[in-house]
Amino acid sequence: MVRAKKFLGQHFLNDKNIAAKIVDALDASTGKILEIGPGTGVLTRLLLQRNKNLKLVEIDRESIDFLIATYPQIKQDLYKDDFLKMDINKLFDGENFSIIGNFPYNISSQILFKIIDHKELVPEVVGMVQKEVAERMTSLPGKKTYGILSVLLQRWYNIEYLFTVDEHVFTPPPQVKSAVVKMTRNDRLEMQCDEQLFIKIVKTTFNQRRKIIRNSIKPLLDDRPFEHAFLNLRPEQLSIPQFIGLTNEVEKILC
C-alpha cells in the first residue's frame, strides 16, 4: 500500500465512480494522454482500458513501485520526474496531447502555469484541484475570486467547473473540498499585445489588488506620465480584452 506523503500534497482518491466521471470528461481527441501524479492508479486503470498511448509522470518512488507492480505494461511510459521541471515537449515527439490528473494541491497553480507555457501542445486538460482554485480559474470580472489565474488561463482556454468533490472520498481526507475542472483550448492564436508585458501587468496589479491600477503600475512606468481610462479602477474590474488594451497603451509609453 502507498502511504500518502504530506510534503508531496498527496490525497489519494478512493471513489471509483468519481474516478470514472473524471476520465469520462476527457475527450482525448489527440489519442495521447499524460497523467500527472497517478499515485495509486485510480485513474490509470480506467485510462489504460480506453487509451493505448498513455504516459505518466510521478515523483514518488513508492507510488512508482506500486504502479509498476500493478500495471507492468506502463513501465516504459512511466517517468520518475517532477512535472514542473521536466521537458514535456519530448513526451510525444512534439505532438499534441491531453493532460489529466488529481493535481497535488500544493503545486496545482504551478502546474496550470506550466500548461499555459505549453498551450500549443496541450489542447485539453481535466484535473482535480482545490475548490478555491477551481473557483479562481472560472471566475469572471467583478468577483473577488477573479485574479491572475482567471485572466491568464481564460486568455487561452475555455474553462468549465464540472463538479465538486467532498473530502471523505480521499485517503487521507483533505481539509478542503475539491473540484474537477475541464480546460479546452480556445481559438485565440495571437496575444494581440506583448505577452510578457501583459503577464507582468496582470501579476503586478493583482498582487496589489487593493490599489487602483494607477498606483500599482507606477513602478513599471519609471515615472513616465501616463493617462488611461482604466487607471482609477481596480484589476478585478478589467476584462481580458481591457487588460490587452491597457498593455498596448503601456507599451507605447515604454517604447
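That was protein one. Protein two is written in the same sequence-then-structure order:
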Amino acid sequence: MVKAKKYLGQHFLTDNNIANKISMSLVNPDNVPVLEVGPGTGVLTKELLKRNFDLTLVEVDIESVEYLKENLTQNFHLIHADFLKMDLHKYFESEVCIIGNFPYNISSQIFFKMLENRTMVPELCGMIQKEVAERIASVHGNKTYGILSILIQLYYKVEYLFTVSENVFNPPPKVKSAVVRMTRFRDKIEDVDEKKLFSVVKISFNQRRKTLRNSLKSFITTDTPTDHPFFALRPEQLKPVDFILLTNLLK
C-alpha cells in the first residue's frame, strides 16, 4: 500500500460511497476528456472509470504511480508529473474537465491554474478543505469573501455541494473537507483589461481594511472619478461584477 507523504499533503480517500458521490458530481455534459489530479491510491479513479470518461491521471508521487499501474487495469492515461507545472495544451487538444481529491496545501494554486487555463476548463469538481470551499463560494459582505471568491466567480458558477467527514481519509486530516463544483459561464470579459482587473482585485484585498480610495492609490490619477461611491467602500462590499466597473474607472 502507498504511504501518505506529509510534504505532499496526501490524505487518501478510503470511502467508496464518497468517491462515487464526487464522481457523479462531475456533470461534463459535452463528455470532454477528464483529468484527475492526484489520484493517490485510485479510490476516486475507479468510480470515474465506471463512467467511461476519456480519463487521464496526473500524479507527482512515484510510489502512487507504480501502485496505480499495478492495480488498475482499465483504459486510462497516466502522467507522472506535477500538475502545477503541467502544460495542459500539450496533452489536450481543446477542453478538459478537472476533478480530484486535491491536496490542501496546493488547492488555491490549482484554482489559479484553472483560471489561467479557463478557455480549456469548462468544469472543475474537487474535494478541498471546508474552509477554502466556503471562501470560494462566499458572497460579498462576508469575512471569508476575498480574491479567490471574486476571480473564480467572475468566470465560473460556484456550488458548495456537500461536506465530508475527516474519518473517510487515511490518514484523517484535522479539519473537515467539502466538495465544490465550478461551471464556466464565460472565459473572457469584454470591454475590460483582464490583467488589470486581476491586479485591482489582488491589491484591493491586500489591504482589505482600507477603503478602495486608499488601497488603490497607485492606480488613481487626476482623471479618476474618485467621487464614485465605490471608492468610499472596502473591497468586500463590492460584488464580483463591480470590480469590472471599478477597473474601468481606473483608466
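The mean pLDDT is 95. Keep this in mind for the problem set.
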